[in-house]
# Entry
Amino acid sequence: MNLYDYSTINKILTAHGFTFSKALGQNFIIDPSVCPEMVRNLNADEKTGVIEIGPGIGVLTKELCKTAGKVAAIELDKRLFPVLEETLGEFKNAEIIEGDVLRLDLNALIKEKFSGMTSIKVCANLPYYITSPVIMALLENRLAIDEIVVMVQKEAAERLCAEIGSRDSGAVTVAVNYYAQAEMLFEVPKECFYPAPKVDSAVMKLTLRKNPPIDIKDEKHFFAIVKAAFSQRRKTALNCLSGGLGISKSAVSAALKAAELDERARAESFSMEDFALLSEIL
Ligand code: SAM
# Structure
């Protein structure tokens, strides 16, 4: 069954009475080169368990099943289950899991579904309305996964993969870099989807770190400082930190001075070490 072909897709979807939901970010890949390229970058083999988020009609799931030992695909939209039964029928190593990825206990899922696997990875064309929460949940929960290859909106990929200290960086860049090494892999124009979204996409890879790049005593406080520092992009870190944390400008100014940081600078120019030092001082 060629899931890259419009008429095949339409035939299956019509037979099941399926209509696309914009709210659930349902834009399915129809370019035949994208999914194989994503899977090639995942380094999976028969001992790899893969969590897919949002299989849709199973176009990426199929490619994953050809390489990985087992694929557990989490789908929120129940209307797709009979479709997936038809499209993935031949793959005995695929299992569809009903639920919202942000509500499921992924630690329990890994234990239950992937016993005997030597490596667990995540691969997905993410529903864009939940890109950052999904990525942060995958990282913060310290799941037993080693790699994540995901497609997100191009702009989001640029921010997530930006160098800390560069103009494109933001709070999420610092957070992602704390847990993983982020790498932009390739761009995917909007024409590669059905229906076509308004913006282009990009595939990125996160390789999870065994240990954070710096020693942070209080992670919660560190991330609160980072978030506050980036809270208003056009303002100086001094104003953002003072407003965001509810402390006086003179206290923030003294902390910046102690960390040898320019109080007129914006947070995007700070390094991970600068944030670490600031969070210790403040
Ligand atoms: N993997 C397919 C592809 O690449 O063609 C579909 C990707 S489509 C961009 C996103 C998929 O995520 C849809 O199937 C949608 O129903 C599903 N989805 C949306 N929100 C979800 C959630 N909270 N948890 C799990 N799946 C979700």
